[in-house]
Amino acid sequence: MPASLRLTRAQLEAVLGHARASSPKEACGVLAGDPDGTVRRVFTMENSASSSTFYLMDSREQFRVFDQIEREGLELVAIFHSHPHSPAFPSGRDTELAFYPDSLYLIVSLMYDKPECRVFKIVDGKVEEAEMVIVDRQGTE
Ligand SMILES: [Zn+2]
């Protein structure tokens, strides 16, 4: 699993834009890239639960996206979702349904004036915060 999530301002804006557009429902998606956590592709996805308190990736869309990630020779770096009305911390359900121990989890909270973004490792029900690094286009800090 990558030690940190490394993404550009533009990639983060793509995540935030999807979160804002989906509000008051939760938004979700996948970040793919390099083993060191550098994001190359942002996949915004449908929340098939269509809920303001939890998310569920559509299984067919998920299959398509994961297949594309593999064909492009990338790795799953992080799964992201938004919390329209609660802090950027994994809910009990998020922790329970974190099926990808090798992936980071990015949560974006829209409950404050400024969006709050936090990254976590969720393994066997244990939540640990990880680092998010904003990089420029060349991948340097
Ligand atoms: Zn959540």
Walk me through what this model shows:
The structure is a single chain. Helix content is 23%, strand content 36%. Helix 3 (92-96) links the parallel strand 4 and strand 5 (104-109). It starts with a strand and ends in a 6-residue tail after the last strand. It has a seven-stranded mixed beta sheet with strand order 1-7-6-5-4-2-3, sandwiched between helices. The protein has three helices and seven strands. With 141 residues, the chain is of the alpha/beta class. The radius of gyration is 14 Å and the shape is globular. The chain has a single domain (4-134), classed as Cytidine Deaminase, domain 2 (3-Layer(aba) Sandwich), CATH 3.40.140. Zinc ion binds at residues 81, 83, 91, 94, 107. Residues 81, 83, 91, 94, 107 line the site of zinc ion.
